[in-house]
Write a structure and sequence with these properties.
This protein is an alpha/beta fold and 401 residues long. The protein contains 16 helices and twelve strands. It has two domains: 131 residues, Aspartate Aminotransferase, domain 1 (Alpha-Beta Complex); 248 residues, Aspartate Aminotransferase, domain 2. The strands form three sheets. It has a seven-stranded mixed beta sheet with strand order 2-8-7-6-5-3-4, sandwiched between helices. It has a three-stranded antiparallel beta sheet with strand order 9-10-12.
């Protein structure tokens, strides 16, 4: 079949509507992934396919062993920065979770997770053939995970199967309410039972200080494109030394006719993972990330300021634990929802009003509940966001205290 050129024109001149500095983007999954200046240059430089493989060592052909660009050094520096022993860069945080589940578990084994875990945690477990036990949360309005219940769930698995779960996962900060969980508390429980403890830092490592050793973490997974000023897809798998030997197994297969073997390759990574521009953006932004995590307290102040301002609006409240300890915020807004029921644009009115004020990232159509993230915004931008919400509320007759 020959495709007509007129049909292919839609793929030319692709542009992103809200790129650049004209708009304030509040999308919760994008604030921590905005590229540094160095990463933008690296993205163009290494954009071609297998661009980082120019100097792949022929005797040790593996991603983490490449020295030019300095990927080998980066893996070691990244491990030190995270307080872990061994690091691999994979395509996504969810891939890192799947690798761990697949290598530690067998079909029908259990893992224990918090009930606010990202959906990909469940899918990764399912793909590995595992079953899930959930640790409950407190429900409305705090949605606080009951960390003490991790022990109960481990015991429950032991009663049902005669053995503990193959791993326990805690979401450091959940994607729904932005609650920060005490990783050390869960780590202590896990180690009392001899169960490997995995911390999902998709919303924390890269934007705030996270040290796996200090938190007593066995496995740390993270998201480069979500929180490390990196382009997608990039994920981080960080391990303690003893677990790295179980998880990063080397290939032992031998071709029955050719005799070919690949002993340098790591089985769960299928040899290599991120072979182009994304890993270089992760590296190029690393000095920027190392510096920016030290400004975390200031970032949290911005989130608390925005909560304080928006809660002045009739019917608006922050859900999740208070005061905020993270920049991802979930708002309930009965006032804006009431407006939407009478507006000709229905729930899209709020999106339209914000866009007129050069603010995007709130999911179109949502008014009763919406999430946003102010990480990395300048104070004047945060104040513009607050003033815009207050202005919209007044425009539609909502009381503002």
């Amino acid at each position: 079949m020959r495709l007509d050129q007129s049909r292919l024109k839609k793929y030319l001149g692709l542009r992103r509507e809200f790129a650049g500095g004209d708009y304030i983007n509040l999308n919760p999954i994008q604030r921590g992934g905005i590229l540094s200046g160095e990463a933008r240059k690296a993205l163009v430089e290494f954009g071609d396919g297998y661009s980082i493989c120019d100097w792949c060592p022929p005797k040790t052909p593996r991603l983490d062993l490449i020295k030019k660009p300095p990927i080998h050094d980066f893996m070691q520096d990244l491990a030190e920065f995270l307080g872990m022993d061994v690091v691999r860069v994979v395509t996504r945080c969810r891939e890192a979770k799947f690798i761990v589940f697949h290598m530690l578990g067998k079909p029908r084994d259990y893992i224990v997770v918090d009930s606010l875990a990202h959906y990909s945690t469940y899918i990764a477990a399912e793909a590995a053939g595992l079953r899930v036990k959930e640790v409950p949360h407190s429900g409305y309005p705090e949605f606080k995970v009951n960390l003490e219940a991790y022990a109960e769930k481990i015991e429950e698995v032991k009663r049902e199967t005669g053995k503990p779960p193959v791993a326990v996962l805690l979401t450091h900060v959940d994607s729904f309410y932005g609650n920060l969980n005490n990783a050390s508390q869960v780590a202590k429980i896990c180690h009392e039972y001899g169960v490997p403890f995995m911390l999902n830092t998709a919303y924390t490592s890269g934007v705030m200080p996270v040290n796996g050793k200090a938190l007593n973490v066995d496995i740390l997974v993270g998201s480069g494109h979500k929180s490390w000023a990196s382009s997608a897809p990039t994920g981080i798998l960080a391990l303690k030394e003893d677990l790295s030997k179980k998880i990063l197994l080397k290939s032992s297969i031998v071709g029955d006719w050719s005799g070919r073997s690949f002993p340098i390759k790591e089985i769960p990574l299928l040899g290599c993972t991120v072979m182009g521009a994304p890993i270089v953006t992760l590296m190029a932004s690393f000095p920027f990330v190392v510096e920016r995590v030290n400004r975390w307290d200031e970032e949290v102040k911005k989130a608390r300021y925005l909560v304080e301002q928006l809660e002045r609006i009739e019917g608006t409240r922050q859900l999740g634990v208070k005061p905020k300890q993270h920049t991802l915020i979930h708002f309930e807004s009965k006032g804006f929802y009431d407006v939407s029921k009478k507006h000709k644009r229905r729930g899209f009115f709020l999106y339209d009003e914000l866009k007129e004020r050069r603010i995007v990232g709130i999911q179109p159509g949502r008014t009763k509940h919406f999430e946003l993230n102010v990480y990395g915004l300048k104070w004047e931008q945060v104040k513009h966001v607050a003033e815009s919400f207050l202005e919209i509320a007044k425009k539609y007759g909502l009381n503002v205290s």
